[in-house]
Amino acid sequence: MIRALAFDVFGTVVDWRSSVIGELVDFGARRGVNADWAQMADDWRAGYVPAMDRVRRGELPWTRLDDLHRARLVELLTAAGIDAPDAEIDDLNRAWHRLDPWPDSVAGLTRLKRRFTITTLSNGNVSLLTNMAKRAGLPWDCVLSAEIFRHYKPDREAYLGCAQILDIAPDELMLVAAHPGDLRAARDAGLQTAFVFRPAEHGPDRTLRRPDPAEFDVSADDFLDLADQLDA
Amino acid sequence: MIRALAFDVFGTVVDWRSSVIGELVDFGARRGVNADWAQMADDWRAGYVPAMDRVRRGELPWTRLDDLHRARLVELLTAAGIDAPDAEIDDLNRAWHRLDPWPDSVAGLTRLKRRFTITTLSNGNVSLLTNMAKRAGLPWDCVLSAEIFRHYKPDREAYLGCAQILDIAPDELMLVAAHPGDLRAARDAGLQTAFVFRPAEHGPDRTLRRPDPAEFDVSADDFLDLADQLDA
């Protein structure tokens, strides 16, 4: 029996790439500078895993994703020769708080919420996720984050901490994610798993393939299909 | 400037006493036993502060409110000579997940949410608060709890932890509570404070008096009045 659904957020619920490119384009227009903003968005995102891994390995103390994002942003702006006041960099860094949902996300979550407890389980910090949900109308029952467990996914503690704080068994919790690696780690921790295909996550030039549907408990085209498959 | 409102929950948002008495009456009817259920509700609630204080003083390791509630419930049932299976005691203990809101709570929170981030800041554990919100339709932006900070209110760490995880300054956060002691501790930690008068919290036989309104930043009759005063 599934009692709660925990959602990966970046890429699964929201289209980070289009949103961040849009924010970078606006920033460039305000500053009167130009760059390959799509490439910068990809490079910004690509900095995320190595930075988290330094925290996961204990080379850095616990550091919020906002702060990891900001350090990477400063590196990228410096490399591009772009100067900006701190307040403007802070604002640009909060682009990750203003990501737009995929077209089916709000409607699908609203349906799934009728039947299940729905929570975030993201590496984004709580304030990022809260601000994002408020702006985008994501109807979470609660906002859980790696920040609360002081362990970034795919650390086992993040998945087990989520089940524990919801006071349910790991196999009563289903992780919903567009990323096989996240789902495999959740499965190894004893959770149920739902893959959702988000072929546009990395933009038009990267073709994503579906993983073998037999690998996960559910494999869905989007959140409405997930709601159908879970009778929500 | 206020950016977020953090709400005490038991007594401030929900009418714990009427709800718990109702659950005890139903339990008694199911078990075919009788007792002074109103007195038992009051005794159950009265066990909460001393039990939390044992955690706050470090005499007990971190213990969720659900578990503190359950230990007290078993004491009370034993003292009353009432026997029940574990599963039934578990269910009765979850009465605290099923508390009804005051009549103005949902409408007031809905208005306040338009202008501010609204969160719980309760000694109730996350699963209790999440289940309560889902049942009662409380539209929180996020669910924060003493459990996340591993400090029960009125420990300073709970108030400061709430501001920190929301990524705002303590004086950008306002605690909303019906209890002067909670508000005073929040004020001492640098938060803004809103007193809400809930004269029926302890039932018809206990007359509550309003504290001096000058002591807090806002003093309101209910959440609609609070929304009026905060222009929400």
UniProtKB/TrEMBL annotation, chains A, B:
It holds the Pfam family Hydrolase. Its EC number is 3.8.1.2. Keywords: Hydrolase. One of its GO terms (molecular function) is (S)-2-haloacid dehalogenase activity. InterPro entries: 2-HAD (IPR006328), HAD-like_sf (IPR036412), HAD-SF_hydro_IA (IPR006439), HAD_sf (IPR023214), S-2-haloacid_dehalogenase (IPR051540). PANTHER family: HALOACID DEHALOGENASE, TYPE II (AFU_ORTHOLOGUE AFUA_2G07750)-RELATED, HYDROLASE, HALOACID DELAHOGENASE-RELATED. This is 2-haloacid dehalogenase. It comes from Mycolicibacterium iranicum (Mycobacterium iranicum).
